Queue: 3 jobs
Job 1
Amino acid sequence: MFDTHAHLNAIQFEEDLEDVIQRALDEGISHIVVVGFDQPTIKGALKLADTYDFIYAAVGWHPVDAVDMTPEDLQWIEELADHPKVVAIGEMGLDYHWDKSPKDVQKRVFRQQIQLAKKVKLPIIIHNREATQDVVDILREEGAEEVGGIMHCFSGSLEVAKECMDMNFYISFGGPVTFKNAKKPKEVAKEIPIDRLLIETDCPYLSPHPLRGKRNEPSYVKYVAEAIAELREIPLEDLVKKTTENAKRLYQISD
C-alpha cells in the first residue's frame, strides 16, 4: 500500500516515530510520501526521506501560513526540488476556513508555487478547504495540467473531480471516505476511473472509522483501502495494486 500523504514530521510522532514506521511496514505499507508545508516540516520531511528507503518527501507552503512565506523560502523550495527523494511540490492551495492569511496572499503564494512546479517539472499536491471554485480556477489559469498532481483528501463533488481529472490530477481519499455520513467522497471514490484514484492518511489527522478521534498513522491507510474496495465491489488486492501503481506513476518512483 502507498500512503500518498502523511505528516510523520509532525510533533505528534516525536515520542514513538520508529514504532509508527515499524507498524506501517508490518501492515504492508511499501511507500510513504511525507509532506512538508513550512520550514520545520520541510526539514523534517527531508530528514525522514534521507533516513528511510521507502519514505519520500514533498516540499511546499501551506495556505494557512502563506502570509509567512518569504521570497527566500520560495527559492529554497526550488533548490530542494533537485533532491533525489523530493517527488512533488506541496502541499499548496487555498484554505478559507482559517483567516490567518488573507485570501489575496494565499492566492499569490499558490500561483507562485504552481509556477515553480512547472519550472522544476514536479507534480503538485493541492490543499483545498472551503475554496473549491477558486482552487479550480487558479489551477486552470496557471496551466497546472502541465505537471498535474493530487487533489489531496478530496471532499468535492463528482463534477469537480472530473474537472480536476481533466487537468491531469489524481483524486486522493483519506479517513473521511470511511465515515458513514460522507456521501460525496463515497460517490466520487466509487465512480471515478480507478487509474485516477489514490489513498492517503493525512496522519496524524483524520483517522478513519473505527479509529476516529485517535491519532492517525500510515498503517491505518488499510481502512481507507478497504472502504473504497467495498464501495467499488472489487477485491482489496486489486484496489491496493492499482492505487500503488497510480502513485508510483505520478511521483515517478520506479522501485
Job 2
Amino acid sequence: MATSSINNRKGLFEFIRELGGSPASEPIRQTIITGITIVFFICFWHIAAAKVNTSLGQLPGPTQVSIQAHGLWLEHKAEREKEAAFYDRQTLRNEKKLQSNPDAKVKWRTYTGRATYVDQIFTSLKTVFVGFIIASLVAIPLGIICGLSSTFYNAVNPIIQIFKPVSPLAWLPIVTMIVAAVYVSDDPLFAKSFVTSAITVTLCCLWPTLINTTVAVSGVSKDLINVSKVLRLSALTHIHKIVIPSAIPGMFTGLRLSLSVGWMVLIAAEMLAQNPGLGKFVWDEFQNGSSQSLARIMVAVLTIGVLGFLLDRAMLMLQKAFSWDKSAILR
C-alpha cells in the first residue's frame, strides 16, 4: 500500500513537472491550474452557501445565481422586443397618416421603457471609459512634466498628496452640486447623472496614473538622457523618442491601477447617487428585498468582477502593443 501511494505521488509530481518543463506546455499548465481553481471555488461556494441563512432566505449558490442570470437575459430580450414593436407601430401609424395627408406633421417618440440589466452594464462601461480617458489625458502630460522638472513637481506635489486620499464618496456631493449649478441646458447632450458619475471617476482615476508616470519619467536611464544631449534633440523629440518609450511600463502600471480604481469608484457612486448603472441595480435589488434579490445581487457582483478582469486584460494587451520590449513578461 505504501509503495503504491508513493508511486502515485511520484506520477503526479512527474506530470506537473513535465507540464511546466517547457515553454510550449505553459498555456496548457495554466489552463489546467485555472480550471481546477475555478472548480474548487464553485464547490466551496455551493457548500458554504447552503449553510448561511439571511433575512431574505438562504444564501444563493451557483445554481440559483445562474438561473437568475438567465432570467435577466430573458428580461432584456423581452424588453428589446417591446422596443422593436413600439417603433414598428409608430412607423406604421405615421405612414398611414402621411398616406392620407402628405403635408401632415408626424411625431417620432423615443421608447422610454425601463433599463434592463444589460443596459445598466453598458451604461457603467460607457461612464467609466469617459472618466478614465479624461483622467488619462490630464494625468499623463502632467506626470511627464513632473518627472522632467523637479521644480514643477515640488510645486504641485503638496496638492497631489492632499487630494490623492480623498474618498469618492466625499467628492460625489460636491460634484453633484457643481454639475447641477453649471450644467444647465434645455436640451443637454448628456444626462446630469452621467456627467456627475464621469467626473467623479475622473477625480479618482487621476492619481495612480499621475504618480506612476512621474516616477517612471524621473527614472529614465541617465545614459539615454546623455545620448539625447549628445544628439541635441529638441524637447519634444526628447520626450517622444527617449522619455515615453522608457516610461511606458510605469505609465501603463498607473493606467491599469487607475482603471481598476475608476471601476470600483463608479459602482459606489452609482449606489450612493442612484445614477443609472450596475451600482443602482445592486441598490434597487437590495431595497426590493424579494426572494430573488440576493441571487440577482450575486449576479451583479460576479459581473462587476468579470468586467474588471476583462478591462485589466485589455489594458495589458495595449501595454504589450505599445511596449518596445516585446519579450518582457507582463502580469
Job 3
Amino acid sequence: MANFVRVIQPGLSTTVQDLGRPNHQIEGFPESGAMDRFSYKLANLLVNNHRNSASLEFVSTGPTLRFACDSFIALTGGKVNATLNDQPILQNEVVEVAEGSILKIGPVIEGNYGYLAFSNGGVITQPVLDSRSTTLRTKMGGLDGRALETGDTIPIRDSVVMPSLSSRKIVIKSEKVTEIHFVKGPHWEMFSKKTQEQFQSEIYQISEQMDRMGYRLNGPKLEVPKKSLLSEGTVLGNIQITRDGSPIALLADRQTTGGYPVIGTIIRADLNRFVQMKQGQQFKFVLTDIDTAVEKLVQQQKVINDTFEKWYAGRYIEPIGPIRRNAIKISRLIRANK
C-alpha cells in the first residue's frame, strides 16, 4: 500500500511544521515551527502522536487531499468547514479516513492558521537540523523548503488502529480576544514612564503587514529611546519598537537577531490567541509578571494533560473493537466484497 497523501489543491500557503529548531538559532537559522503551538500540540494529541510529530499548517484556506492509505486525522486551530468524501467533519476530534478518501478544507472563517495532523507519526519528510519545519525564506525543511503544490505527495504511515477512538474529542471554547498579556522586555527601563504607560493604555490593531515572521501593529506611535543598541538574539513573542515608534511582534520565522529595543514579550500562553487574530482586530497589552505567565502556561498545558488522561483511562471501555492491524484489514476486505 502506498503511504502518502496526494495534493489536489494546496490551499493558500500550506507547509509542513513541527515545533521548529530552537537549538539552531545560535547558528543563524530561524526557529520556525507552528505558529499556534497549542492547536498544533492538540492535533497531535488527538491522533495519538508525539507532540513534535510534523503536521500540515495552512493559512487562510486549507488544502484538498486524496489519501492513498488508511489513516486517522484531526483538524484544529482556526475555524473551518471541512468535508471527507463530501460529508462534513468536525474539528477537534479524531476522524477515521479510508484509502481513496478525499478531504476538502475550506477557508478559515475564524482565526488565521489551521492544523491537520495524521496518525502514526505525522508527516515523515526528511528532518533538517533536527526538525521537519518549513522555513520559506531559507527554502529549508518540509517539502523542498516550500509550500505545498498541486500534485505533491506527502509521506505518511498507514494507520488502522486508534486507542479510545470514540473518546478522542475536545471542546475548545471560542472567545473574542481583547487583551494580550506581556512581561517586561530587556529594554523596558530604557523607555520613559510616559511611554510605558502609553503602551499599556493604547488600543492596538493588527495591521495588513502580518506573516510568519511577525505582526506589525497599528496604533499611536511610541517615543523611541535615543540610545543605540547592539544586535541581540530574538525570542518568540518579543515586541520590538521600530524607529518610527511602531510595535512589531516577532513570531516563528523571525530573524535570529535584532537591534530594535524590545519593550516586552508576549507570554507563551497568549501567543496562540495572538497569532489567530485577524487583520484589523483591536486589543490592549496588559502587563503581568513571570510567575503569573508561568502559571497561565501550566493551566493551558493542564488542558492537554487532563484530556490525555481521560482518554487513557477510557481506552478499555466498550465497545473495544478489534485492536490488531491485520484483523481490521481483513474485516474491511470482507465488508468490501459483500
